[in-house]
Amino acid sequence: MHLKPESGLLVAGWSRLRQSHKVLWWVYVVNLVLALFSAIGLSLRLSRVLDHSAAAARLVNGMDLGYLIELAAHPDVQPAIAFNSSLAAAALFFLFMLFALGGILQSYARGRHLVPGEFFQAAGSFFWRFVRLLLWTFVFLIPGGILLALFGAVIGRATANSSHASLEFWLRLAAYAVVWILLTIVRLCFDIAQVKTVGEDRRDMTRVLGASIRLTLRNLGTLFPIYFGLSLLGWAGTALVFWCWLKAVPADNTLAMFLLGQFIALLWITTRLWQRACEVVWFQRYQSLQLPLALLTNDETDAANAIQADGVLSEADAMPPTVSASESQTALDEAPATLPQYAPPEPPAN
Amino acid sequence: MRRLSVLVSLGLFLAVALASAQLPPAASLPVSYSIDARLDAAHHTLDATEVLRYRNLTGQPLDRLTFHLYLNAFQPTSTFMTEVRRDSPDFQWEDKYTGSITIESLTVSGMGDLTAALDYIHPDDDNALDHTVAELRLPHPILPGQEVEFRIKFRDTFPEVFARTGYKRDFLLGGQWFPKVGVFWKGAWNCHQFHATTEFFADFGTYDVRLRLPENYVVGSTGLQVGSTSHGDGTRTVAFHADAVHDFAFAVSPRFREVLSEFKGSAGTVKLRLLIASDHFDQAERYLSTLRLTMQRFDQWYGPYPYSQITVVDPPEGASRAGGMEYPMFITGGTTWWMPRGMRIPEVDVEHEFGHQYWYGMVANNEFEDAWLDEGINSYTEVKIMDSIFGPDTSMFALSGLNLGDAASQRGSYLRLPDTDPVTRPGWLFYSRGAYGGITYGKSAAALLTLEGLIGEATMRQALRTYFQRYRFTHPSPQDFFKTVEQVSGRDLQWFFQQAFYGTSLLDYEIASIRSDRPDWARKDATSRQEKAGPLYYNSTVVVRRKGDFVFPVDILIKFENGDVAREHWDGRDRWVRFSYYLPTKVASAEVDPNHLVWLDRNFSNNSRTVAADGSATRKLANYWLVFTQLLAQLFSWLL
Fold this sequence. Notes:
The complex is a heterodimer of chains A (about 350) and B (about 650). By secondary structure, chain A is mainly alpha-helical. Chain A has twelve helices and one strand, in the order αααβααααααααα. The model of chain A is unreliable at about 310-325 and about 335-350 (pLDDT under 50). In chain B, the strands form eight sheets. In chain B, strands 5-4-8-2-1-14-17-16 form an eight-stranded mixed β-sheet. A five-stranded mixed β-sheet of chain B has the order 19-20-21-23-22, covered by helices on one side. In chain B, strands 6-7-3-11 form a four-stranded antiparallel β-sheet, with no helix packed on it. The termini of chain B are far apart.
């Protein structure tokens, strides 16, 4: 029986995520701690106004918008400060992820938890490469923005005299969906570029990006559903939690609201890292199918072993390294365009 | 068919006659308009001949008349547009906003063609390019009691709807579309230019309007339809008649869907005619049910609606600027195709605009100089009626755990710019359009709610009922309203009116401090001595401060730890007051205005103080902010 290489990708990705679960928890903790700094500042200002005021009851039992608006305008509350500190927290988290990404991808690639030394070495090693890739990301986002503006102008003009009330809304929604799909494909290309950088220890980011774009576009049928499916999982989970929040949680139960909020935050991180893990698994399988196993480097041997642990290759397929990274790379670059079928390992005799 | 149309016309005549029993007789009114108009729907223009019969009831000879030409405001050099640009620097002029009214000829019975005698004037500013007011100097005066006929040929060009009047696709609202004579009021002509923040003022009269329009267009307007004649060329002429109204507006569209209903009031049955855009048809009942409930309350609380019909027009998508507007017997609502039930925009719109049938439509104050007399009183009655229908905390909005009451909404709009202008300032002299809206609507409503708290709800309702019954079909001024309230309540309230309506002082009382201390606080062995002597007594003090300059008497409720309460009253004249107690219990909390009647207070947070801290609200809001920041951070990192 022949299996496609993408089969079991979700499960395999989940497996990598679990194997390196400390990564997930660390990302969550950093996300929480940075946000806490912003929330604590706001909390201190709010407590001066609310903690000894009976008017606060309007926010505990339900949420009185009138009082909330009055509170936002209160000179002691200053929501602008809170918003700026949220932006600062978001920027810091962004920098953290930019730094940690190399270590995260390396841990997924090796299929095991990295000790701190290995993690930070990987993180530091790939940091500037990912900065260069990030600059390319901004370049690719510009056409997305132009497209959005263009769609908006065209739709606005086309529907200005329409008597159908909702036509403009649905057209804009469709346009946003198209742009979102295109941006997601761009995102995937860059994800694969990052995975490729780590997997092959590459430094020529422009070539890596070009090859990743071609690779992603050729295998979009495999990669996009995985990415979209996991995103959908995140959104559906979020919607379900909000529904529970509104319907089942009493307005004054702050602990339940806190737990539900943290579940959403964790869900978003989990789905995003799961996407990453799946991309790593896919790339490793693709790599292993392009290159004879005898040509694998040290890292690729780890990868092959990881793939073997996924159950795709048999133990006998794992081979010691015999060639340099550049020779391996040349072989990969000359690999066929599409992913061939391969046979699964024979089950054990017993 | 002919017999049927005769019977229908007779029925309509009888209905009008019955309703007219509540209306002032036509002979007592200074104006009557008879207008023949032809609408060119494709080009958004209208040609018309107006016959204005003006009866001089002023008691003095009149050698001039002034006319409003409101449509001329839709030009870039007008005072209206200049003020819009002043308050919204990003506003860009577009040719589609152009509107105009051109007088082609004007003849006066016994005086001949006076077209050349018409001059534009600008009584409010020095803008010679504003053409919204024209003055006609007569070769000889109109004597007291004399009636003169003016025949005016004019052409309208409607703008794309920008403010109240205009078109959007095949929908058109014709408001302020004909030359309207000013009001001779308090010994002089009162005819202000059209400003960005002003509305309208005109005399009561009768209107007969015959509007020729495309056959397939549905039309709604002031008054009752009294005839319809098809011309066989794709057009028809629809005739309307209205008694004792001071304006005439209409709306047309081939896409209106008509829904009829009725209300049985103390003056008889009123026909409710709703013309609703197709995309909003599922919201028809939202409009009509709220309208019926509103009419019921107005009828019971203030007096009967004397007309036999009210027409409600729901503007289509993109024409919302024609919505939320009042004309006699004709109002415009406003909604969107996605409007959820908990967002009560169509309900508030129809309630508020029907309320204007009383405050503006019948009690016809000068909206230029005393805008709050209709907008403010109407906003107050809006709060009362919306609260009675939908509940005080949810009368504006109730969705997904969030709620907003109408009173809080009014107060919120007031607090945005609370002290830039007095309520009684003429509309065009406010600091900005935002200040005009917040103070005329929001502060007036908050002030009247506070007044209600002072004199009692029943007395307030009686005062408004008296005011309506006394001043309907007249042009009252603020003093008429204040005098009525004082008479009905039996109290001198000038101190309140001066501060709330003529001043800009802010009202803010706070519980500044609460202390409970043992009298023997200085003794080190006080505890053992007291315990041997009996229950512990405390010297407790509660300090209340007046932070604003508005002086207002307030109640204070003080609660003690043992469950006892003390109610105090303070006249609020000094800057602070201290209440002291010597009791075997400590003070647990204190609250100014415990019944929440002082809606003018700008800060509800400091109206109360508890000794024990309760961080529930803080934790709840901080938790929301925490999750928001976490998700924001993750969205940023999508770029990686």
